[in-house]
């Protein structure tokens, strides 16, 4: 009811603004990195496994795609990520030393549960779920579990569940790195410090909402949008495009920026907004030349640029500056402005933000 909404217009907006709390709760009480965060048997399981298979749907699948970057770079373990509804209908090559990870807000998604059972039927018994509901089928079915503490999520479009999943998956990357001997105590301390600063960093990002509202007015009149990201921000671009589709019904697609020239550039005209995630990372210079490719075709760039990335507003280039560059945790911070952009664009279009047409919060049938 209205009382629960407090100052917010919709549950989605409330849930976006709960993210500093949700992420803070998810990491609260963690003094050091230890397999026991994932369950009693985790130490033995993590020692045994030498590869990871992630199974999920929707937004949870994009959390999995992001985790692949973290786990491969920090823990040096190969990761494959599969859409749960596809995995069980193809012939794959199972290996018993696989850590099978399901990611699910609800823990009841039929496709993800079926994919888990399929993996088990192929002899993969080492299973972990990252889940937001402790009493769910997924938690009962998996050997190991990490519970995100997003709290109840009501908006159909997932927001706080996603950022808490990312937080949990980052913790997992650190844990696997530690078990496999790829993390020094100094690195562990540094990562923990960054994690503890996340709630404050998220709050700082939320403060840019008024600037995003101004952009949303313009987006509301569009029928198409492109989202660009590179590296570990490519899955964040996918999630940004999904949010916009789900609630505003604007057709949106995401591409890794280097792939533009292999097709989507043909779509770019003055009426195509191109949302660009521009973290101040090793790929920034490459991204800037991708942005030039868009400008040269008259495309309108809407850039979320980190502090110090030296991207400034000019003809056709609209910039909102992110408060800080957040290193390896940057995907979590860059998610928030994309959620707000989708949210305010939907409000401007007058769609049913919390209950978009044709979609359900939890899909418990195939
Ligand atoms: C539905 C929801 C999405 C969600 C997906 C997976 O499609 O609308 O927001 O990402 O299911 O749900 P899960 O509960 O497994 O994360």
From TrEMBL:
Active-site residues? 361 (for fru-6p isomerization activity)
Q: Which GO terms describe its biological process?
A: amino sugar biosynthetic process; carbohydrate metabolic process; fructose 6-phosphate metabolic process; protein N-linked glycosylation; UDP-N-acetylglucosamine metabolic process
Enzyme class name: transferase
Q: Per the annotation, which location comes first and is thus the protein's main one?
A: cytoplasm
Gene Ontology cellular-component terms for this entry are: cytosol
Which molecular function GO terms apply here? carbohydrate derivative binding; glutamine-fructose-6-phosphate transaminase (isomerizing) activity
Q: Which reaction does it catalyse?
A: D-fructose 6-phosphate + L-glutamine = D-glucosamine 6-phosphate + L-glutamate
Q: What is its EC number?
A: 2.6.1.16
Q: Which UniProt keywords apply?
A: Aminotransferase, Cytoplasm, Glutamine amidotransferase, Repeat, Transferase
Annotated localization? Cytoplasm
**Does the entry feature the keyword Repeat, yes or no?**
yes
The segment(s) forming the SIS domain are: 42-182, 215-356
Q: What is the role of the protein in this entry? A: Catalyzes the first step in hexosamine metabolism, converting fructose-6P into glucosamine-6P using glutamine as a nitrogen source.
Oligomeric form and interacting partners:
Homodimer.
Q: What is this protein called?
A: Glutamine--fructose-6-phosphate aminotransferase [isomerizing]
What is the native source organism of this protein?
Jezberella montanilacus
Biological classification of the source? Bacteria, Pseudomonadati, Pseudomonadota, Betaproteobacteria, Burkholderiales
Gene encoding this chain? glmS
Show which stretch of the intact protein is covered: 245 to 610 of 610
């Amino acid at each position: 009811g209205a009382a629960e909404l407090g100052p917010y217009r919709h549950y989605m907006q409330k849930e976006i603004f709960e993210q500093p709390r949700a992420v803070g709760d998810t990491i609260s009480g963690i003094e050091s990195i230890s397999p026991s965060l994932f369950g009693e048997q985790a130490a033995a399981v993590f020692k045994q496994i030498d590869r990871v298979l992630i199974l999920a749907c929707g937004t949870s699948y994009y959390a999995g795609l992001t985790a692949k970057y973290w786990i491969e770079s920090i823990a040096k373990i190969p990761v494959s990520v599969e859409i749960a509804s596809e995995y069980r209908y193809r012939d794959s090559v199972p290996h018993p030393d696989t850590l099978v990870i399901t990611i699910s807000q609800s823990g009841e998604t039929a496709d993800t549960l079926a994919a888990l059972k399929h993996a088990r039927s192929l002899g993969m018994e080492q299973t972990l779920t990252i889940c937001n509901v402790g009493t769910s089928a997924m938690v009962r079915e998996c050997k190991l579990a990490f519970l995100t503490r997003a709290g109840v999520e009501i908006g159909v479009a997932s927001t706080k569940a996603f950022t808490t999943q990312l937080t949990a998956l980052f913790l997992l990357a650190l844990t696997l790195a530690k078990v496999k001997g790829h993390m020094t105590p100094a690195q562990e301390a540094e990562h923990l410090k960054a994690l503890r600063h996340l709630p404050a960093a998220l709050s700082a990002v939320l403060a840019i909402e008024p600037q995003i509202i101004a952009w949303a007015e313009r987006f509301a009149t569009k029928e198409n949008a492109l989202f660009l990201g590179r590296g570990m921000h490519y899955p964040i671009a996918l999630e940004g495009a999904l949010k916009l589709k789900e609630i505003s019904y604007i057709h949106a697609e995401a591409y890794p920026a280097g792939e533009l020239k292999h097709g989507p550039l043909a779509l770019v005209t003055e009426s195509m907004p191109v949302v660009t995630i521009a973290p101040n990372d090793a790929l920034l210079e490459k991204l800037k030349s991708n942005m030039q490719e868009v400008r040269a075709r008259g495309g309108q760039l809407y850039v979320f640029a980190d502090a110090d990335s030296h991207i400034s507003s000019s003809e056709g280039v609209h910039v909102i500056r992110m408060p800080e560059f957040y290193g390896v945790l940057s995907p979590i911070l860059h998610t928030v402005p994309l959620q707000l952009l989708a949210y305010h664009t939907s409000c401007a279009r007058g769609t049913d933000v919390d209950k978009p047409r044709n979609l359900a919060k939890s899909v418990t049938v195939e």
